[in-house]
Amino acid sequence: MAKINSQYDQDTLVNPKHNPTVAALLSVIPGLGQMYNKRYIKGAVLFILFAAFVIVMIDFITTGLQGLITLGEVPREDDSRVFLSNGVISLIFTVFFLGFYCLNIQDALKDAKRIQLGWKVPNMREGFRNAWDTSFPYLLIAPGLFLLMFVVVFPLLYMVFIAFTNFNLYNAPPREILEWIGFQNFINLFTINEWRNTFVNVLSWTLIWTFVATTLQIALAMFLAVITNHPRLKFKKLIRTVFILPWAVPAFVTIIIFSALFHDTFGAINTQIIIPLFGEGIPWLQNATWTKIALIMIQVWLGFPFIYALFTGVLQGISSDWYEAADIDGASRWQKFRNITFPHLMFATAPLLIMQYSFNFNNFNVIYLFNQGGPAVRGQTAGGSDILISWVFGLTFENQQYNMAAAVSIILGLLVATFAFFQFRRSRSFKEEGTF
């Protein structure tokens, strides 16, 4: 049976002598495989490009990768930061080179198989037209991809590598040479009491802050959107405009104003409201618990207008026939909200609401501008209201603990990525028919 199939395959080949394996092997030297396929101009261009890349970049890449391993050898002369930067750039160029190298082999192999089946090699004009048609989308995204590599990927890789070194205030280049210490920073984060206690406290508050502040602003926005969408309510446009106003004011201006309003000594909230009613002010900035309560209230104020605008738009699109049918069936207001309004709101806005949770998880502005993450806590390297991102900022720019800041940043990134991944997977349930 195998011999019959093999004979059949050979009979269907128009040009059986043209060997794809030979084309792939020749492509070990880029361009030769394309020349074997009689695509001489394409092969010449690939050969020239790869040869030029190797001639120009080989010294930089080999030196950069070697420096990435050693991080320098002579203190005060070799700067480990430069070695690390050059190594990361060399690594990026190497990945690009290997990617195009593999594509070159795959291209030669694919063309050889097509030639076996009777495909005719196009002439120069047709080849250029085909190449333009297939590569045009890639040409459009190439500038953005290039910027992405060196604006996002390079800093990210640099930070990841820093997490596995001993880069801190007392071991800073060029005075000292950095060393690779493996996972020691992560081990210290979970074994040394000072680091472990700080990490646990900050992570706990970050999760509470994210869940409570975001959920409250969503709940408030939903409540106000449903109320203002009621058909008996008058002056809807004016009321909606008032609710959108907090969104129109720059966030940092609002935060600074609230910081003054919540000031323990001269803040209007204490002097005009709390003290006249209770005789004693609240230590908003000196007590960590009250600081956290104030931060949650501020974030609810800042965040609900955007979600309110989303919900208002969705509510305008819900057909009144749904509610009329529910009235005929004798449904209560709660039943109509639970079975009509709420599913429609979630279906349309679930991805954006997930984004709100991710945004608040890394919401640096509110935490830092209100009280710089304070008040200070004895025995911790973070303030009482610091979340992970503001703690990383303090470790980097105030304490110069670059290695620990990088380690915490990696954990922070993994947490956000994992949360977003699973939540977006769950949000697909809203797109399935019959979920309402």
From TrEMBL:
It comes from the Bacteria. It is found in: Cell membrane. Its main location: membrane. Residues 203-423 form the ABC transmembrane type-1 domain. One of its GO terms (molecular function) is ABC-type maltose transporter activity. One of its GO terms (biological process) is maltodextrin transmembrane transport. InterPro entries: DUF5683, MalF_N, MetI-like, MetI-like_sf. Gene3D superfamilies: MalF N-terminal region-like, MetI-like. PROSITE patterns: ABC_TM1 (PS50928). GO terms for cellular component: maltose transport complex. It is a multi-pass membrane protein. The chain crosses the membrane at residues 44-62, 82-103, 138-164, 202-226, 238-262, 293-318, 339-359, 402-422. Keywords: Cell membrane, Membrane, Sugar transport, Transmembrane, Transmembrane helix, Transport. Part of the ABC transporter complex MalEFGK involved in maltose/maltodextrin import. Probably responsible for the translocation of the substrate across the membrane. Belongs to the binding-protein-dependent transport system permease family. MalFG subfamily. This is Maltose/maltodextrin transport system permease protein. It comes from Salipaludibacillus agaradhaerens.
